[in-house]
Automatic annotation (TrEMBL):
Residues 12-252 form the ABC transporter domain. The lineage of its organism: Bacteria, Pseudomonadati, Bacteroidota, Bacteroidia, Bacteroidales. It is a peripheral membrane protein. This is Iron complex transport system ATP-binding protein. CDD domains: ABC_Iron-Siderophores_B12_Hemin. It comes from Microbacter margulisiae.
Length: 269
């Protein structure tokens, strides 16, 4: 048994995890030897260049694709040993960059988060209804709970998607690029909302994002993925050990560690 089993703040960890695909019968490795942890109350931001494997990792951690090697331990048990209904009460993955726009109301969408808890007739208890109402309230959509999703702004639809996973009440929440397609204010407010959710409900939140500068300000931990490897740590640690500079090195810009931002070279006059 790993020593990590005895750390009650850890909801999920990986042991020597290799992620990737099987292609024409051969393994296509995307990342290997991953030793990662998600803790209660922490916001973790997964950042890295296009194609380095962020979505592959999120899908693997959610159990949607099998690891090529190693294991994922969720609340002290191997992820593979959970049934789908058991897993739905412990872990959610939200693909918020592709919110389906349809005629469903906010209330109906958020209600879907309660399905893992309903009986076989799918009937909601009064407690389920209270949980749904509270989740909608937490994302400030109560006044629009009967509105159809196609009448909401992109930012409001993202908040409705977040309310759905709040209603699902899992201790681990995974989000694949929750801020894509949003304007600056909504990108900031979405990340702040997820940070607040992590703290207020003491849940583990992991999100992938290309919002590097925001991640540096808000994340408790950053998982900084490159095409070859992964660096893990708080922003200050990753700046101090040169990880940001290493992963995002380019002739086009440099990373200013003091200002925590990228400076573009040779901007045309
Ligand atoms: N179904 C698949 N079969 C084989 N290889 C795949 C498959 N899906 C993705 N890949 C490969 O896995 C690698 C990682 O892709 P992934 O989508 O995880 O990257 P990402 O970091 O999420 O990228 P982005 O920032 O562009 O969303 C890429 O080289 C990609 O081509």
């Amino acid at each position: 048994m790993s020593a990590l089993n005895h750390d009650s703040s850890i909801e999920l960890y990986t042991e020597n995890l290799t992620i990737g695909y099987a292609r024409h019968g051969h393994p296509l490795m995307v990342q290997e030897h991953l030793q990662l942890q998600l803790r209660k109350g922490e916001l973790v931001c997964l950042v890295g260049p296009n194609g380095c494997g962020k979505s592959t990792l999120l899908h693997t951690l959610a159990g949607l694709q099998k690891p090529l090697a190693g294991s994922i331990i969720l609340q002290d048990k191997d992820l593979c040993s959970y049934s789908t209904p058991e897993k739905a009460k412990l872990l959610s993955l939200t693909l918020t960059d592709r919110v389906e726009v349809d005629k469903m109301s906010v209330f109906d969408l958020v209600s879907m988060g309660r399905y893992p808890y309903t009986n076989r007739f799918g009937k909601f208890s009064p407690d389920d209804i209270t949980t749904i109402e509270q989740a909608i309230e937490q994302v400030h959509l109560s006044e629009k709970k009967k509105w159809s999703l196609d009448t909401l702004s992109d930012g409001e639809r993202q908040r409705a998607m977040i309310a759905k996973v709040l209603a699902q009440a899992t201790p681990v929440l995974l989000f694949d690029e929750p801020t894509s397609h949003l304007d600056l204010t909504n990108r900031v407010s979405t990340l702040l909302l997820l940070k607040t959710v992590a703290k207020a409900f003491q849940v583990a939140v992991l999100l992938s994002t290309h919002e590097l500068e925001m991640a540096m300000q808000l994340a408790d931990q950053i998982w900084l993925m490159s095409n070859e490897s992964m660096a893990v740590g708080a922003t200050e640690q990753l700046i101090a050990n040169g990880s940001f500079q290493h992963v995002f090195q380019s002739d086009l810009f440099t990373f200013d560690a003091m200002a925590r931002r990228f400076i573009i070279h040779n901007v045309p006059e």
